[in-house]
Each structure stands twice: as structure tokens, then as C-alpha cells.
Design a protein that fits this description.
Elements: E1 3-9, H1 23-37, E2 43-49, H2 57-67, E3 75-78, E4 81-85, H3 90-100
Parallel strand pairs: 1-2
Antiparallel strand pairs: 1-3, 3-4
């Protein structure tokens, strides 16, 4: 079974994230960095816009939690487990991905 890294965010940056990359930029950056570090990993990196409706219960649950201020975005989730939020640290995310492989 492969790994799924899901980045949740919105086009509008969160108030405390004004000087940080957008959620979609974070997704692209993490995807490129992780693909370089783990070139043979079965890793899918997805982006979920928290302001778009979805039938996927996991996406809906995390999106609602962010909208209810339970998490900051971008929120990084690996196989259903929150591993980073706000300004994700590549070293931390890489360690979590490696441990899940």
C-alpha cells in the first residue's frame, strides 16, 4: 500500500501565514522535495481546498476542523494522521514519511 500525503488549505492565506508560501505552493514544494528524497517511494501528494465541497468524509472532516479553527493551514496529513500544520518543517515531514514506509 502506498502513502498518501494530503495538504489542506485555501487560496486565501491564513492571517498568521501572510509571509509564508500558500498551501498550494507548500504542496508543490513538499511533493518535489519528498520525490527527490524518496525517489522510489509509492507516495501520492494531494491538495484539498478547504472551501470546496467534497463527498470524501476524511477531506470533509479535516476541512471542517480547519474552518472551525482547530488546525492552522496548510495542514499536512499522512495516511489520515496530522503530521504538520501552519509552516511545515521538511525534516519533520520527511522523518514521518520515512517512518511510514
Amino acid at each position: 500500500m502506498g502513502l498518501q500525503l494530503t495538504i489542506y488549505g485555501a487560496e486565501q492565506k491564513c492571517a498568521s501565514c501572510v509571509h509564508l508560501p500558500s498551501a498550494i505552493e507548500t504542496k508543490e514544494w513538499l511533493e518535489a522535495a519528498l520525490n527527490r528524497k524518496f525517489p522510489n517511494a509509492d507516495l501520492a501528494v494531494l491538495y484539498v481546498d478547504i472551501e470546496q465541497t467534497t463527498d470524501n468524509e476524511e477531506y470533509k472532516s479535516f476541512s471542517e476542523a480547519i474552518l472551525n479553527d482547530e488546525y492552522f493551514y496548510p495542514l499536512v496529513v499522512l495516511n489520515g494522521e496530522v503530521i504538520a500544520e501552519g509552516n511545515p518543517n521538511l525534516k519533520t515531514v520527511s522523518a514521518k514519511v520515512e517512518a511510514a514506509m
